[in-house]
Amino acid sequence: MKMLTRPSSSSPPGYGTLMLSLPPLFFSSSSSPSHNNAFHSKSQNFNTLDEALCCFNRMLHMHPPPSIFDFNKLLTSISKMKHHSTVVSLSHQMYSFGIPPTVCTLNILVNSLCHLHRLGFAFSVLAKILKLGHQPDAATFNTLIRRLFDERKIGDALHLFDKMIGEGFQPSVVTYGTLMNGLCKVGNTSAAIKLLRSMEQGNCQPNVVVYTSIIDSLCKDKQLTEALNLFSEMIAKGISPDIFTYTSIIHALCSLCEWKRVNTLMNEMVDRNIMPNVVTFNIVVDAFCKEGKITEAHDVVNTMIQRGVEPNVVTYNALMDGHCLQCQMDEAVKVFDTMVRNSCVPNVICYTTLINGYCKIQRIDKAMYLFEEMCRQELIPDTVTYSALIHGLCHAGRLQDAMTRFHEMVACGKIPNLVTYSILLDYLCKNCHLVEAMALLNAIEVSNMDLDIQIYNTIIDGMCRMGELEVARDLFYKLSSKGLHPDTWTYNILIHGLCKRGLLDEANKLFMEMDENDCSPNDYIYNTIIRGFLQNKETLRAIQFLEEMLARGFSADVSTTTLFVEILSDDRLEQSVKQALQKFLK
């Protein structure tokens, strides 16, 4: 078996980049095979880091010192406690005491360095493994490849994999699985499938984890047919699906409301002695609730209880949310009470769900009571909780109270998100508080938050409603400098504002620019500009737009049709115009 060469200048970023900065680690050129085998036995368990450090210090000063295998077990325990900086420090102490490492020791160090985001140092340890005459194993490469994917260095991860094979190292099924999982996470499922086909032609055959990773990614990409084909292929090859495989497909089927197929698949699971767990059941419960099928959701919960699967806080919250979506607040509260009786402790999401439900039916008193109650239970409201309450207060006409809650939210260290800001901007504009809305927009812009076009649509609409057309127009043409492009709704808002002011030529010019800016007009835009021309007595030009709209497959909405009928009833309308209109209204 060939050895990897030392990293060269042509290697990808991180290869040997910090070798000179890392002190020489160890100088032993061999390690006992028995130690390597023993390393895979059960690690020592410690309750605290202090216990582990005391044990390390005792081991370090023993004469003769314990085997490297014992040190490996201790380092593994500390690594599992997520004290990765300590692992690196102890590794250096072992070097200073002349304790020789195994590849396993160095793999533990590589793993900790990767968790510390010190990828350059991790590759330096790989170089040290080679320098000491050791052979890196699959664990070495798997750890490095996983970290490269975590840092979205996809090309470097694939380069390392190719280099590994090119130098004669045999990737394990975990190596392939790590690569495929990484490719799927970055949305490159097609590349993962190609790697699967390549793997099938070699000596290392895929297992259920590999297939499930790709099936899950296909499901998330809404490629259910391809996912089911791969599922069938896996079974045909004698590889049994597990709970994760079934859960991925069931989730995708629920998203498409394929209830019969969901039921079939869940029965198939049971036939294969794979019992649906609480996660699987919760997916189905949540999907039924979102579709308004509350009775069916409760039936699923009863089934899971009969099968010995206890509902958890996610289950109860899905049911509460389903009732809230149907404005069945009394039923939602009953679910909440059942959850408490069953010793399932409500969390912030549970309270937020009920607060949002009460706000939607404008029972602000109930929402406020629950808000105070969750604080008494020492649950800290999050941004979503505050946003729900702020929206409820705004909708109930209590804008000042909403602003008070907003300032309280900021004072408590909760960062408002785009939803929070959109709610406040919308209601400030609707209530003619344009100055306050602009001040809030300026505050958002200086916060370096990534704003979307909807935020500006809200402001431009508010400006047009208050007759500030010039300011709205100016902001519209500044959007490109903010890295944003108007969407159809932005154009619709400004065209409506221009028509309302009687600036039909400018409205027409803006309409014509839409196709040039890759923003094709939709039926809303056509109806807006047609009504604008009709209301300004430009009936013939309105008819021209109507002809164009119908040719594009759109139709007049109720408001536009009503306006045409009213115009037709005007005895003063020219006969030629009347005939043209009647042709379209037949």
Care to give the gist of this entry?
The chain is mainly α. It has helices at 33-38, 49-60, 68-80, 84-96, 103-115, 119-131, 138-150, 154-166, 173-185, 189-200, 208-220, 224-236, 243-255, 259-271, 278-290, 294-306, 313-325, 329-341, 348-360, 364-376, 383-395, 399-411, 418-430, 434-446, 453-465, 469-478, 488-501, 504-516, 523-535, 539-551, 558-568, 575-585. It is elongated, with a radius of gyration of 32 Å.
* Poorly predicted sequence stretches spanning 5 or more consecutive residues: 1-43
Can you summarize the main beta sheet?
none
Structural class estimated from helices and strands: mainly alpha
The residue fraction in helices comes out at 55-70%
What does this structure look like?
This protein is 68% helix and 0% strand. The chain contains 32 helices and no strands. It starts with 32 loop residues before the first helix and ends with a helix. The relative contact order is 0.03.
Label this structure with key terms.
mainly alpha; elongated; disordered N terminus
List the helices and strands and how they pair.
Blueprint: H1 33-38, H2 49-60, H3 68-80, H4 84-96, H5 103-115, H6 119-131, H7 138-150, H8 154-166, H9 173-185, H10 189-200, H11 208-220, H12 224-236, H13 243-255, H14 259-271, H15 278-290, H16 294-306, H17 313-325, H18 329-341, H19 348-360, H20 364-376, H21 383-395, H22 399-411, H23 418-430, H24 434-446, H25 453-465, H26 469-478, H27 488-501, H28 504-516, H29 523-535, H30 539-551, H31 558-568, H32 575-585
Helix pairs in contact: 2-3, 3-4, 3-5, 4-5, 5-6, 5-7, 6-7, 7-8, 7-9, 8-9, 9-10, 9-11, 10-11, 11-12, 11-13, 12-13, 13-14, 13-15, 15-16, 15-17, 16-17, 17-18, 17-19, 18-19, 19-20, 19-21, 20-21, 21-22, 21-23, 22-23, 23-24, 23-25, 24-25, 25-26, 25-27, 26-27, 27-28, 27-29, 28-29, 29-30, ...
